[in-house]
Amino acid sequence: MKLRIAAVQLNSILGNVEENMSKALKMLEQAFPSSKPKPDLVVLPELALTGYNFKSPAHIHPFLEKAGNGKSYQFGKMISERWGCLTLLGYPEKYDKANEEIIYNSAMLIDAKGKLIHNYRKTHLYETDKIWGCKESPDGFQAFDVPFNGEKIRTTIGICMDLNPYEFTAPFEKYEFSRFASDNKCQLILIPTAWMNSNWKENWTLEQANEFHKIYQNTKLEPEINDEHNHVKDHSILIPQVSIKLAKDYRLEEVDGSTGRYWIMRLNPLYSETHDFKQVVVVCNRSGMEDKLMYGGTSTMYTFFGGPMERTPQGLSIDFNVEGSLGQGTEGVLVREVEI
Known about the structure:
InterPro entries: C-N_Hydrolase, C-N_Hydrolase_sf, Nta1. GO terms for molecular function: protein-N-terminal asparagine amidohydrolase activity; protein-N-terminal glutamine amidohydrolase activity. The chain has helices at about 15-30, 55-60, 70-85, 125-130, 175-185, 205-220, 255-265, 270; strands at about 1-10, 40-45, 85-95, 100-110, 115-120, 145-150, 150-155, 190, 225, 280-285, 290, 295, 300-305, 310, 315, 320-325, 330-340. It has about 350 residues and is of the alpha/beta class. It has one domain: Nitrilase/N-carbamoyl-D-aminoacid amidohydrolase, CATH 3.60.110.
């Protein structure tokens, strides 16, 4: 079956939920005017409406929501009902257990009638998650059936660090998340992220970070609507790029190819082992900067067809397609009709 999927890439402003909602809605209206076919699925990034780089549990506390009850849920419900689609978006969850309030980095999936049908909690935590008090999911990765147009599609959700080795200490070749997706024959793999740009350095000084802040402040770009009628950068992530040493050489509209290729590497079992069904992967990242963090954008959709992996004189040949990508520093919507 065919699905029209939209990945919404935001430069979320930390703590400014209303502005982030307004930007996301305007871009969706631009991508899906009444004259165009509606999406079947809309995906937004990790902590899409709140921003990510909170400094403490107290800092994030005003933005916490219970699953199915809060501003993020209401926004996702509105999108689903307006376009008659499913919506996935990341949000900071609070869960009351006995006398304890537990914080999770979660993603909610809302159906076309506005009903919360699945709530996933991040399993592999990044250092920033721990700073604001996030706990690991007690349930781990999950596979579940999602109804699309009368058919059920086996689906899994991972959030950002889930794609990496656990704590960066597990063996690289264990590929925990993509191994789970492969073993459970997931056809649709959804990954909302707040993934760092490959040009970002953890030891940046404030002065170095400010040089990149200036690029974002001084470069005015229209939202990037990359759809079936405007195919750009479809395979750009596959082209090797030189690492940016100076902020003046950084281009918001270019993809972060190193990050896009790393995502492929971490999806290894989807192409190193043959299978008789297609697997569609949607990585929906955010862009922009928060303090000294710089995100990688480059939201990308991939299809893995299940054919054998081969070694050729030119290198490794895998049976897949990059359906399209957005720029590393842009805001916008990537729209593709994919077949599952």
